[in-house]
Fold this protein.
Amino acid sequence: MKQSKVTFLFFFICSLFLVPSCNKKIAEKKDSKHTIDSVNVFIVKMKNENFNYNTRLKHANKALQKATNQNLDSEIVEIIDYKIYLFANLKQYDSAIYTSKKLLSNSKNDSVYIGNVYATMAYYYNQNNQKDSAYYFYNLIKNKYSKFNDSITNGKNLLSLAIIQSDFGDYNGSDYSATQALEYLSNSTVEYSASIYNCLAINSRNQFDYREALYYYSLALEKSTVNSDKIVINNNIANTYRSLKEYDKSIRILENLRKDTTINHINKARIIDNLAYTKWLENNKAAVLLDLLNALAIRKTENDMYGSIASYSHLSEYYTKLNPELAISHASNMYNAASLQNSPKDKLEALQKLIALSNASKTKEYYNAYVRINDSLQNAEQKAKNKFAKIKYNSEKNREENLRLKIITSAKEVELEKEKNRNLIGGVTSSAVVFGLLIFGYFRKQKYKLEKLQEVYKTETRIAKKIHDEVANDLVNIMNKVQYNEEPKEVLLDNLEKVYLLTRNISHQSNTIETGNKFVDSLKSLLTSFNNDTTTIILKNIQEVKLETMTKDKQIEIYRVLQELMVNMQKHSEASLVAISFKNIKNRYFINYSDNGVGFDNFTLKSGLKNVETRIKSLNGIINFETSLNNGFKAFISFKK
């Protein structure tokens, strides 16, 4: 009995010490739960769309303060990320960028995470019109973090990079980035493809290559699914036709757009103004004044300052001969609107009009202003280009540089081989040399004749096979439909048109090669003939490299090489995109072929590609192939002019 009392007393005394300890732990758990709950309360308020953005931002700051005090890492990241979203909606891009940098401290060297944060920073730098900083981060992502991103993210980053390069006037760089973006995005949302083609069209138009611009605008229009985007693209197409002075085509497009009842007021004013101005350019007696004034009135109502600048410009030109005083008035209004929008190029255009229209005393004043603004603009553009050039660094060697290194190595090997041959030839008599040259010439001539005969035979065989497999089968199907089915006339005409297009493509691929000055057009016609519903062909700089100055023999060989590559693509690659770029550097041609097809595993040269290699070697050139399964096919060609 005594023992049980002692035991009871012992446990009672211990419990006096243990109860405060347990109560303390329970209290700590309650405090921790209370802290998380209070953070979550503010997070919920931060995301409540019934509050305005400033109120939500205040709740985000309170949530962040509480989460930081309790070291709630996951909540901290969530709150910071949402604050960026709130700053963006408030158009406080500096704060969005600053807050994005805070996310980097939570990266824990996670490359995927860092790449995503850099993409966010690049986007808001771009929104804040800090193009150089945006370019820096997009370029950094491309060179260092692209391997960690998915295809869509890489494509979007490259598209943004292409647009910035275009804004800087780096049109070749923009084209290259846009083409890379297309490889990533060609199988995703078509709107991305539409944006890429639109960027390529703008680049071409800014370089006065209006035909190429029309080609890319048509592709952008084909891919676009949003009606407002289609309206803008069609308007751009109409303006491009106007630049080509093909006014009837421009007017037809704009008149169709004007009938669209879904167009918003700003686009409506743009179309009315462009249509009236184009009609006036075609016929300066056309009754377009009411439309020009109507467009200006809509733009003023909508506070569309950039649109008003265009209206004032067109009205000034309209009144130049009819009423010079009104022309001066509209040019002055254009200058004032351009000043409010801080658009130096529009200010210069307005000053040009004022100089042409004003009297001598005013002309001097306007001329001095023109020189001052022009000098300032050129200095600003030069500074921007210099800054852009400093940012642009080569962290990865491009393929052309690698190819040049291969060429240098090959040239050294050829020189060593020549030296050996010279030593051997020195021990042979002159008569043997002459005799050997005669034999060599004879066999080379015979070989050339044999190759030509084989080429003719292969061409005829290919044409016969295509006619049998493709044209004849389609014709038989059409005949069966005519004989046994009551097909509508329109369906039969569509089928016949497909057969016609098929035969035309066979003709393009098999006809006599035009050489000399017509060679570029002939080659371009061949390559674009492979365009169809499933495959897009992109040609870069084919007009700039002066292929027409090559010798006739080289033109024929290059034509056949590219034809063989395209036929190989058509047969085997299942490619949706083919890009062929041309360059001429120090009297040496570089032709790069690339497609996004299925590629090859354990690649070996088949007969067609062996012919390609043989032809390039006959030009003393170099060709390298690069491919792997599901990673496309590439060919890098180089030869002397």
The first helix runs from residue 2 to 46. Residues 419-511 form one domain. The CA atoms of residues 441 and 632 lie 41 Å apart. Strands lie at 536-540, 577-585, 588-595, 622-627, 633-640.
